[in-house]
Amino acid sequence: MRLEEAMTRIHKQEWARVVASLARRFGDLDIAEDAAAEAFVTAVQRWPRDGIPAHPGGWLTTTANRKAIDRIRRESLRETKHRAARILHDDTPAEPTGPIEDDRLRLIFTCCHPALAMQARVALTLRLLGGLTVAEIARAFLVQETTMAQRITRAKRKIKAAHIPYRVPSSEDIRERLAGVLTVVYLIFNEGYLAGEGVEPLRPDLIDEAIVLGRLLHDLLPEDGEVAGLLALMLLTDARRPARVSRTGELVTLEEQDRSAWDRSLLNEGHDLVRGRLAAVAGGDEQPGRYQLLAAINAVHTYHLSARDTDWSQILTLYDRLMLVDPSPIVRLNRAVAVAEVDGPDVALAEIDRLAGPLHGYHAFHAARADLLRRLGRGGDALGAYDRAIELAGNRAERTYLTRRRDQLAT
């Protein structure tokens, strides 16, 4: 592997760990971010000459700690300088003060403090733990990049102004902040499973990071249905990764995928989690939430070896239940796809057209509409919808797929 590629991989693997470790130790988000960035800059300068260390994560963390201490030393307040001296000579691990032992999960729960607006919590954590750019986070929220940049900046300012501590939350705090944490993990996963832009259609580092966080959450809260549902959803989705992109770099839809290439171990684990939740609900547990229902939908999609055997009626029923929990435009769009299989493309198109306002800038809306128009024999309208979907799609593999479908229609 070339040095540049190795350093890029290390950055993706270690950034969250370094930032989270510094945030725990120094209790200051700006110091953690800046020191981590300086450590990576130092690595770029030294490693080409000295070689990559045997334990790059440890090297980066040690270097970042020194950078942070140097910054604190430069502060003018005597109290801050005394604090720096104490930190410099204290290399003992921090005493556990709560139920979360993984630094990354500590930081996620800290950033999801209830003093912050929900979207600010999610956006800030995606920036710190997932390593996503502001543009990537903006796409996840379907907002403008400038809007998201302002939101992240305001969140950081509020943390400073309110003196929100970077500490391990109590068990009560965990329950209060869990919804935001699950949203963070799922958005990281989604950005990895179909990257918003760039050359690579998938970002396995983000996929793997999200699943690691999902497993840690499940270990922490094994009885929580939504935690189990999110983990199942990610496993069932990631199981299809080997068949997701063709050898020519084109997105392969679920209907066209080679199901023999799916990861059976991930599928089995995901299906076991879904069955466990079904049994728990049948035994009197609370009704399933958003992630459990999405996991159940994916379980139906992946149950049979042939797409022709998919039980679309069951999928539509699950979407009807999901609408009661999350009646968002995205859910309504995905439900319309199931409607097309059960009630026909004309009924589905009428439902999709009602979403034109909130989803006019969302490529998947135009792609779904184009497919329905094609099935209804409205070729001219379908061409226009495909053109708009291609224009909005940021992922090259998805653009390649949409272009092929459009070109097939034009011939």
Task: Report on this structure.
With 411 residues, the chain is an all-alpha fold. The chain has helices at 3-26, 29-50, 56-74, 78-88, 103-111, 118-130, 134-141, 145-162, 171-193, 204-220, 225-238, 264-282, 290-301, 312-325, 329-343, 345-353, 363-375, 379-392, 396-410. Helix 1 packs across helix 5, helix 10 (204-220) packs antiparallel against helix 11 (225-238) and helix 17 runs antiparallel to helix 18 (379-392). It is globular. The chain starts with a helix and ends with a helix.
Key traits:
mainly alpha, 411 residues, globular, 0% strand
Taken as a percent bin, the fraction of beta residues is under 5%
Which sequence of SSEs, written as H and E, runs from N to C? Answer: HHHHHHHHHHHHHHHHHHH
What is the gyration radius calculated from CA atoms? Answer: 23 Å
- Helix residue percentage: over 70%
Number of H/I helices = 19
Number of strands: 0
Calculate the mean pLDDT score and round it: 87
Structural class determined from secondary elements: mainly alpha
Q: Main sheet?
A: none
Shape: globular
Unreliable segments of 5+ consecutive residues:
92-98
How far the N terminus sits from the C terminus, by CA atoms, comes to 43 Å
